[in-house]
Design goal:
Order of helices and strands: H
Helix content: 55-70%
Shape: elongated
Structural class: mainly alpha
Radius of gyration: 20 Å
Largest sheet: none
Number of helices: 1
Number of strands: 0
């Protein structure tokens, strides 16, 4: 641990992405990481939506007998 660690701004975690935040303050690296994090979140959300659709379809098939 260096004496100057407290002077280095802490990077926000990917989970702390806020939709609509000012992107002008982010570096190119930060923007690329943000895109990767958001793409991952989109895929995670799509997967959850597919799972719910599958569950709903199974429930509809069961109760329409």
């Amino acid at each position: 641990m260096s004496l100057f660690d407290d002077d280095v701004p802490k990077k926000s975690a990917a989970a702390a992405i806020t939709v609509g935040e000012d992107l002008g303050k982010l570096s190119e690296t930060d923007l690329a990481e943000r895109i990767e994090a958001l793409a991952g979140e989109i895929e995670r959300t799509k997967s959850e939506l597919e799972q719910r659709s599958t569950i709903r379809d199974a429930a509809n098939a069961f109760f329409q007998k």
